[in-house]
Amino acid sequence: MxxxxxxxxxxxxxxxxxxxxxxxxxxxxxxxxxxxxxLRHELKGLLSYRSGTHRIIYRVxxxxxx
Length: 66
Prior knowledge:
By secondary structure, this protein is of the alpha+beta class. It is 38% helix and 18% strand. A hairpin with a 2-residue loop joins β2 and β3.
């Protein structure tokens, strides 16, 4: 999992409870990348997943099956 520099900076600034909430959401996304809503128009190719008041925008580059 790779984070954009801005995403890491933003997560680091969150309160511990919110930080845990976001990290849990990212773990859910890692387990099932299709969980997010597919975005359209100029954001085509990205997915969005809401965690509380935050929205995580992400792209799936490659799937690995273990």
